[in-house]
Amino acid sequence: MNTITRTIAITDELIEDLLCTAFEGGSTYWAENISCEDIEDMKKVGGYKSEYLTKTKKDNAVMYIHAEDDKHPITKKSIIDALQKMDNPKYKCTKALSRILNGQYDGGDADIVLQTACFGQVIYG
Questions:
Q1: What 3-state DSSP class applies to 24?
Q2: Checking phi first, is residue 72 left (phi over 0); if not, alpha (psi -120 to 50) or beta?
Q3: pLDDT of 125 above 80
Q4: Bigger pLDDT: 23 or 88?
């Protein structure tokens, strides 16, 4: 099989918008709580959890998604890695990625990104 790898710029704004969409509806059926590693840093960036990973001064800022009595770390890198994984036809999320890159995504598409960042795959719904 022949394959190509494409380079797509992923802006901080897109990451923030995806997280906001997931946190406000797309992932609420399984994500019981979202916490930030450093509460003081979160306050410094305005208190918006969806902006914590992109606006904090730490390159390795971590958020935790709480589900089923476990907490799962996510980072800016894990979000980008999730989007990269979605570009692989074997993962079967290329249509969701296309909607995201075209700015026409919904909560379900944002949920796929968050689950992939947390678990490496979609495990809920």
A1: helix
A2: beta
A3: no
A4: 23
The answer to whether 65 and 71 have CB atoms below 8 angstroms apart is yes
Q: CA-CA distance, 16 to 22, in Å (whole number)?
A: 10
- Residue with the two structure tokens 């494409």: 6
Sheet of 63-67: strand order equals: 33-36, 63-67, 70-74
pLDDT (tens digit per residue) in 30-78 = 988 888 877 776 677 677 788 888 888 777 788 888 888 889 999 999 9
Give Cα 75 distance to the centre of its chain: 8
DSSP at 9: -
Strands 33-36 and 70-74: unpaired
Domain boundaries, given as residue ranges, for the chain: 12-119
